[in-house]
């Protein structure tokens, strides 16, 4: 005798359809994109792929397609093209007002934050970077060159940056992630430990959602581990890790062509076969690769979720 299967499909579908409206600013042009996504951080990586200029999320608001359309209509006079708007007039006032009321805009359900302005950070401020590009990002954030310590330039090391505090509390702002603080896991852990003892907070412009020392260390460790496997030549020297390394290198190449989530949605399209998807995506995506890495197990929940996405678009 078969048991009756309890169904909570409407509730699960509602969770799957949970959306956010994000504001993403292009560094070089200053244009702001107002878009919608269930995961803004993943969406940002998708926008960044194949885009030469640096893009960062400045604000995230809970809401769906209705809120997005309402904002597009509100800032129609600042529209440059498509979903991109000039940061002036009403849009400039709107972003300034939101950032003033909430120094760090947080989505409670996702834990995603936007970068606060320099004026809202209390205590002594220093910028630390390892490259000229990172230095440019810190200058855009509002730092003077005298407040930035760049690794490898004279005596300006992380230790010099740390010594400049002299027992005071404050912030060290880094442009990327914890790899700016050290080249390996041990050095990163020691650097963060010193910051914690001195009650100095870290703000990453790329990952502002990392608001604890543990999260900052974890992201740095993961980034270092992943970088070991992006070069196929290094993969062959990793012994028993060779298979995993080569697989990670291939995955990195595929991700450079199209973000993983975008490939999964393409494979879930009701009118496309895997053969069609492989032909669209190119030689890096064979039919077997799509089936093995990107096809979700068919069930009613995922089918409804992706059907809702395609219906909305």
CATH architecture of the largest domain: 3-Layer(aba) Sandwich
Helix percent reads: 40-55%
Give the beta-strand count: 9
Spatial order of the strands in the main sheet? 3-1-2-5-4
Distance between the termini: 43 Å
The CATH superfamily of the largest domain turns out to be Resolvase, N-terminal catalytic domain
Low-pLDDT windows of residues: 5-16, 100-112, 298-303
Mean pLDDT: 75
Number of helices: 14
Strand content: 15-25%
How many domains is the backbone divided into? 3
CATH topology of the largest domain: Rossmann fold
Largest sheet: 5 strands, antiparallel
Using only C-alpha atoms, the radius of gyration works out to: 22 Å
What is the class of the largest domain in the CATH system? Alpha Beta
Q: Can you write the helix and strand succession as a string?
A: HEEHEHEEHEHEHEHEHHHHHHH
Structural class: alpha/beta
Briefly say what this structure is.
The chain has 14 helices and nine strands. It is of the alpha/beta class.
